[in-house]
Amino acid sequence: MATTIGVVVFPGTNCEHDAVAAVEQLGASARLVFHAEDKLGDLDGLILPGGFAHGDYLRPGAIARFSPIMDAVSAFAAQGGPVVGICNGFQVLCEAHLLPGALQKNRGLTFLCQPSRLKVTSTNSALTNAATLGEELTIPINHFSGSYTCDVDTLRELQNEDRIVLRYVENPNGSLDDIAAISNEQGNVVGLMPHPERAVSALLGSADGVVLMESLLRAASVSRV
C-alpha cells in the first residue's frame, strides 16, 4: 500500500496542489484535508502548506490554530506522526505551540520571492533524514513574515538538542541564527520557510527539494509500520 500524505487546506491556503504534485511525483499518494474536518483518517504523514490561512488576519497562523483539524494534527504529532509545515504552515505550527518561537516580518519589511541557499545542519528530523549533513540546497522562498525569532533559552535548547535542521547560507530575512527550519524534540514535527515542493524538478529551477520531500515520505513510511 502506498504511503499517503495528508495536505491540510485552510481558507487562503494556495500551495496545496504544489504539495500534492510533489508527493505524487515521488510515488506516494496525497489527500487534501479541509480545515473544518476533525479527523485525519488513515494517513501516514501531514503537510501544512503555504498560503495565507484565514487571510493572515491578526498575524499569520493565529486563526488557523483554532480550526477543528488542528486537534487531530496535534494528536497525530503526539503519536509520532511526521508533520511538516511549509511557510504559512510553519507559522501555523508555531501558533499552535507544536513548535517554539514565532515568525515575524522580514528585515526591511520586504516581501521576498527568490531562490535561497540552505545548509543541512541536522539529519535527525522528518524533513532531513535522507539528506547529508552539511549538504547545500537551493530552495525558493516566498514570504513576508519569515524571520524566525525566539527567546534566548529556546534558542539554546534548539542549538543544544540538534533541532535547527536547515540554516540560510546567506540570511535573506533577518532570521535569528540564520534559521530556516526547526524541529520539535522528537524530530517528527518540522517547520521551514523555504518551499521544497517548488524545487522538485530542474524545469522549476532546482530539484534540491526532492531530498527533503523524500525524507518526509521515508519518515511517513516508518510511521506507518
TrEMBL record:
<keyword id="KW-0436">Ligase</keyword>
<keyword id="KW-0315">Glutamine amidotransferase</keyword>
<keyword id="KW-0658">Purine biosynthesis</keyword>
<keyword id="KW-0067">ATP-binding</keyword>
<dbReference type="InterPro" id="IPR010075">
    <property type="entry name" value="PRibForGlyAmidine_synth_PurQ"/>
</dbReference>
<protein>
    <submittedName>
        <fullName>Unannotated protein</fullName>
    </submittedName>
</protein>
<dbReference type="InterPro" id="IPR029062">
    <property type="entry name" value="Class_I_gatase-like"/>
</dbReference>
<dbReference type="GO" id="GO:0004642">
    <property type="term" value="F:phosphoribosylformylglycinamidine synthase activity"/>
</dbReference>
<keyword id="KW-0547">Nucleotide-binding</keyword>
<keyword id="KW-0963">Cytoplasm</keyword>
<dbReference type="GO" id="GO:0005524">
    <property type="term" value="F:ATP binding"/>
</dbReference>
<dbReference type="GO" id="GO:0006189">
    <property type="term" value="P:'de novo' IMP biosynthetic process"/>
</dbReference>
<dbReference type="Pfam" id="PF13507">
    <property type="entry name" value="GATase_5"/>
</dbReference>
<keyword id="KW-0378">Hydrolase</keyword>
<dbReference type="GO" id="GO:0016787">
    <property type="term" value="F:hydrolase activity"/>
</dbReference>
